């Protein structure tokens, strides 16, 4: 009896000591728990718990529940959360480099998106580091298509339509097409559609399925305009506070998460579009007239992006073209 008590006290002491040295990080994410980005991040968090022997626990807060999409980056910069995931292109107002992945028609396949990611990484890391952030991994969304609540065959059909934007690039596409953009997070999209605040958007089949947008929209045009990425980054001080072993555990699992997430996106892309059709949406390629208009918009926007992203932007694009 005495021995058992001593043993249990010992065990308790060891557990408490272990718990005291373990670190817990909050990881705010903007998209739903069911989304593949979020599932992939959960696998990443589990793998980090594993390779750090429980010393680093990452707790995921999906769907904007801890910080809304627009607040995640700042929260991690300030250390209010240690790690987070964000659609970085939504911060192009701070630095145009953040929207390197969303310039229309520059990279329109998974392969091209991967080449562009690699080309941009040195510049992106530099810019993020100046903001006290270290990039860990990024995963693409499937290619972006246009959603409407009516058939749209000509550029005139787009005029005056209220359009959900998720960053300044998508707002600019809308503007150049004569539509009226409002920036709305995916977490607020269903309500905005249901109440008629917006009736169109550009996004992937993934978000269309996550938000069952067939309840409010009827047409999907598979434009394949670009593949935006979600980027996972960590507060630089938090990262530097880790031991070298745990830093390696984190960066190795991040690398694995990037490949795994990219594969998930590519495998799921076709099914998302089929699900839109199965739920009654008309899925079509864009008409020639719409295509021509979008190409013209793309050219305007490429020139605008290069102008606003300056030398950093030029470095990214020439590294991309050199591949
Ligand atoms: N889904 C996200 C960003 C890009 C995408 O495909 C969204 O609509 O918010």
Report on the architecture of this protein:
By secondary structure, the chain is of the alpha/beta class. It has two domains: 2-89 and 120-140 and 229-271, D-Maltodextrin-Binding Protein, domain 2 (3-Layer(aba) Sandwich); 145-226 and 272-321, Bacterial extracellular solute-binding protein, family 7 (D-Maltodextrin-Binding Protein, domain 2). The protein is 51% helix and 16% strand. It is built from eleven helices and eleven strands. The protein has helices spanning 2-21, 36-51, 69-77, 110-129, 155-158, 168-176, 189-194, 205-210, 236-240, 244-278, 288-321; strands at 23-28, 56-61, 83-86, 133-140, 145-148, 162-165, 180-183, 200-203, 219-221, 229-235, 282-284. The strands form three sheets. A six-stranded mixed beta sheet has the order 7-6-8-5-9-11, with helices on both faces. Helix 4 (110-129) crosses helix 11 and helix 6 (168-176) runs antiparallel to helix 11 (288-321). The longest helix has 35 residues, at 244-278. The radius of gyration is 22 Å and the shape is globular. The model is unreliable at 9-20 (pLDDT under 50). The structure holds pyroglutamic acid. Pyroglutamic acid is lined by residues 87, 141, 166, 186, 203-204, 206-207, 228. Pyroglutamic acid binds at residues 87, 141, 166, 186, 203-204, 206-207, 228.
């Amino acid at each position: 009896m005495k021995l058992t008590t001593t043993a249990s006290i010992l065990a308790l002491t060891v557990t408490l000591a272990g718990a005291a040295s373990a670190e817990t990080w909050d990881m705010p994410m903007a998209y739903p728990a069911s989304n593949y980005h979020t599932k992939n991040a959960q696998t990443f968090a589990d793998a980090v718990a594993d390779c750090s022997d429980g010393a680093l626990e990452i707790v995921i807060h999906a769907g904007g529940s801890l910080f809304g999409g627009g607040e995640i980056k700042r929260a991690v910069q300030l250390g209010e959360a240690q790690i987070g995931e964000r659609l970085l292109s939504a911060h192009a107002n701070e630095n145009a480099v953040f929207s390197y992945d969303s310039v229309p028609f520059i990279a329109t396949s998974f392969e091209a998106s991967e080449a562009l990611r690699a080309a941009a990484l040195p510049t992106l890391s530099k810019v993020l580091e100046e903001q006290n952030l270290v990039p860990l991994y990024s995963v693409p969304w499937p290619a972006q298509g246009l959603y409407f609540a009516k058939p749209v065959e000509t550029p005139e059909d787009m005029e005056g339509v209220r359009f959900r934007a998720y960053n300044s690039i998508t707002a600019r596409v809308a503007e150049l097409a004569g539509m009226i953009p409002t920036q709305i997070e995916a977490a607020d999209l269903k309500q905005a559609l249901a109440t008629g605040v917006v009736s169109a958007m550009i996004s992937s089949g993934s978000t269309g399925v996550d938000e069952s947008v067939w309840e409010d929209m009827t047409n999907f045009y598979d434009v394949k305009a670009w593949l935006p990425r979600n980027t996972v980054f960590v507060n630089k001080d938090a990262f530097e506070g880790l031991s070298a072993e745990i830093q390696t555990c984190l960066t190795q699992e991040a690398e694995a998460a990037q490949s795994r997430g990219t594969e998930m996106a590519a495998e799921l892309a076709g099914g998302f579009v089929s699900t839109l059709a199965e739920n009654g949406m008309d899925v079509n390629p864009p008409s020639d007239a719409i295509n021509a208009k979008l190409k013209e918009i793309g050219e305007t926007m490429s020139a605008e992006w290069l102008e606003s992203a300056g030398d950093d932007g030029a470095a990214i694009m020439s590294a991309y073209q050199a591949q």
